[in-house]
Amino acid sequence: MQDVVSLLWLIPVGLVAGALGTFVGAGGGFLVVPVLLIAYPDFGPETVTAVSLAIIFLNSTSGSVRYARTRRIDYQSGLMFAFATMPGAVVGAYLSDMIPRAFFNLAFGLFMLAVSVLLIAKPGSTKSASGGTRPGRYHRRFTDAKGETWDYSFSRGTGVGISTVVGLLSSVLGIGGGIIHVPVMSRLLNFPVHIATATSQFILAITSLTGVTVHLVRGEYFSAEVLTCLVLLAAGVIPGAQIGARLSEKVDSRWILRILGVVIIVVAVRLFVSAAPSLVSTLGGR
After folding, report:
1. Is the distance from CB of 162 to CB of 187 less than 8 angstroms?
2. Residue 179: its H or E element
């Protein structure tokens, strides 16, 4: 096992992942996973996924504490979506080391690129318009700690259905569902961006804990090396999440979506890189 001092670089990595992940409501797994894959080539995919989910849990919990003080978490909608992600998260944890990843990563990467282009080119308005109280729509109205009133509505069926898929994808990829949930909530479900990012962190805390629990129940354990990595990343992630939440309060929502779009491009590129060797091998064998 490497000396702990030589691994202290994991703390600033965790700090950046925590700050950026909480800022855009994505959890930070998109940075943690590629770092683990490069720094720890001996870690199996299930280990990388489990560590990433554990870090996402710590990140999203820390961020949720800060967002709770601003009163921008939509708890009712968040619980609804979180419970919907659980079946997918459980199934995804079992599938993480069973499904062929190359073509899945390629298809998902292309989808994420399309989402990122939409977010960067058309980030939308600062606040979503109220959807009224039409039948089949769930109306939400509340006031945050600064006295600002948020009024919006969305389709519960659409939100629950998408959340189930998000739970599956986040558990399989180990990147956290926030990177999908935030654009879905802000662009398809009519959530104001600041509410979407705060609520996404709350959802992530529940979803990632579910994924970690399933990995532990399956008998996977953390070796001393894995635990050292986890503790050092956590030392940066927890305060980083507080920084990210504070920054999110001060930045215009359109820039939050643009930055999220850039983050999604990074994720898509990582998926393409990870899929390339297998795809080349498959095509070359024909």
Report:
1. no
2. helix 178-183
Distance CA 76, CA 84 (A): 13
CA distance 129 to 113: 26
pLDDT tens per residue across span 194-244: 899 999 999 988 888 877 787 677 666 667 888 888 899 999 999 999 998
Q: Are 75 and 157 in contact (CB under 8 A)?
A: no
Which whole-number Å values give the CA distances from 254 to 32, 60, 75, 192, in the listed order? Answer: 25, 22, 23, 10
The span from the first CA to the last CA of the chain, in angstroms, equals 42
Tell me the β-bridge partners of 151: 141
Q: How far apart are CA 49 and CA 60, in angstroms?
A: 16
C-beta separation of 195 from 225 below 8 A: no
* Model pLDDT for residues 77-105, shown as the tens digit of each residue: 999 999 998 887 777 767 766 666 566 66
How many Cα atoms are found within 13 Å in the side-chain-facing hemisphere of 223?
Answer: 10
